[in-house]
C-alpha cells in the first residue's frame, strides 16, 4: 500500500507523469487528423525530421530541442506541398524525404564523438530525465492543439471529411491543412525526449486507429484517441518504473494492445 | 458579350502538365438559366465546372463570376455563393462524421472562421434536409449511405450555402434507375422552386433534366455546340459528339 504514496515523493516521477499525460494527449489528438487525412507517412517523416534535427544540434553544439523543432518545421513546409502534388505519389516522395532525413540522422550519429547516450535518448526517449523547460514546452503545444481544435473544429471537420469540398464551400482549406501538419511536426519534435524518434510514430497512429474503430462521432474520436494516448503513456511509465523496462517500448506495446482490443469490440466490424 | 452574365468565360484555357483540357473557351450564362453540359468522358466537362468555381487553375483567359473577375485571392469569397456537387465520393464506411454534419459543412464558409452556426444556420440546414428528403437519416454515419442517398446529402450540403449558382457534376452517374429518377426529379424541383442558375454535367443523354433548355456539347476541351435543346439533340450532332454512326443512336 505504501508504493503509490512513496513514488509521488519523487519530483522526477511527477514530471514523468505530467509528461506522459501531455505527450499521450498531444500525440493522440494530432494522430486523429493524420489518420483521417490518410497521411500516416507524414508522421514517420516528421518524427525522423525532428530526430535528424536533434542529432544535428548535438553534432554542432546547438540546442537539440530547438534544432528538432526547426527541422520539423522545415519538414512541414516540404511535406505539405509534396503530399498535394497530383503528379507524384505522395508516399513515394515522402519515402524519399524520410530516407534523406534518416541518412542525415545516422550520419550525425556516426560523426558524434564520445558517448552517444544523449543521442540515443532521442531514439528511445527517456521520460524520467525531463527538465522543467521540456515539460513547459509540451504543456504549451498541447494547449495550442486544444485551442486550435476548439476554435477551428468545424473547419477541421470539413477538411478531414473532404478537402475539395471544404475548399468549394469557401473554407481556407489549404491554410487549415498546413496548420494541422505544422502542429503535428511541433508535437512530434517536442515529444522526442519523452517517447523517442523511432517509437513516436506508433503513438500517433495506434490511439486514433483504436478510437476510429469505436465511434462515428468526430469529437468522441478526438476524446478517445487522447485518452488512449494518455493511458498508453501512463501504463508505459508505471511498467518501466516497476520492472525497469524501456518506457517507450512499453508505451507502444500498450497502445498496440488497446488497438487490438478496440478492433475486437468494434461495432464497425 | 453580355457584361451582366452571372458566369462569363473569355478565351479560357486549362492544362494539366502539357495536355490542354480546355482550349480557348468562351461562354456566358445568365442568372436563372439551367444549362446542361453534355459530352463524352474526357471532354473537359468537370474542368469547366472547377474553372467556374475557381478550384482549378487556368492557363490563360479570364473568368468572371457575378461580374467579378475570378482571381486566386477572390476565389474563396466567390465560392461561398456557388454550390458544388462533385462526382460521387468514395467514402470510408467507418468515417466518424454523420449526415447532418456533412450538410452543415455547407454553412461553414458563410459563417466564417471561429464563429459557430447560429439558430438561423441550423434552420437552413433543417430546411434543405427536408427538401432533399434526408431528414430521416440525419444521424446515420455518412459512409453508410447508398449512392443515391449520398448524392442527396451532397445536394443538400450545396443548397445549405444558399448558392446563386449550383454546379452538378454527373450527379446521376452510377446510380440505379430509381435513384436516377428521384435525383433528376429533385433537381427539377430545386430549379423550379428556387430559380438558381444551374450548370448540370452529364455524359448520358437520357439524364438531361426536362427544365434544361440550353445545351453545351463538349468534345476534346472545346464547346462544339451551344444552343437550344431541340437543336442540340440532333442525330448528326450527337453522333459526331460521341463518335458513333447516326443510325445507332437511341434518340
UniProtKB/TrEMBL annotation, chain A:
UniProt keyword annotation of Membrane present: yes
Cellular compartments annotated: Cell membrane; Membrane
An example Gene Ontology biological process: transmembrane transport
Gene Ontology CC terms: ATP-binding cassette (ABC) transporter complex
Membrane-spanning intervals of the chain: 12-35, 65-83, 95-114, 135-156, 176-201, 222-243, 249-266
Stored Gene3D superfamilies: ABC transporter involved in vitamin B12 uptake, BtuC (1.10.3470.10)
Name of the protein in question: Metal ABC transporter permease
Species annotation: candidate division WOR-3 bacterium
Organism placement in taxonomy: Bacteria, Bacteria division WOR-3
TrEMBL record, chain B:
Transmembrane domains' residue ranges: none
Pfam families (alphabetical): ABC_tran
Entry GO MF terms: ATP binding; ATP hydrolysis activity
Protein keywords: ATP-binding, Nucleotide-binding, Transport
Record bears the keyword Cell cycle: no
Domain ABC transporter residues, every copy: 7-245
UniProt name for this protein: ABC transporter ATP-binding protein
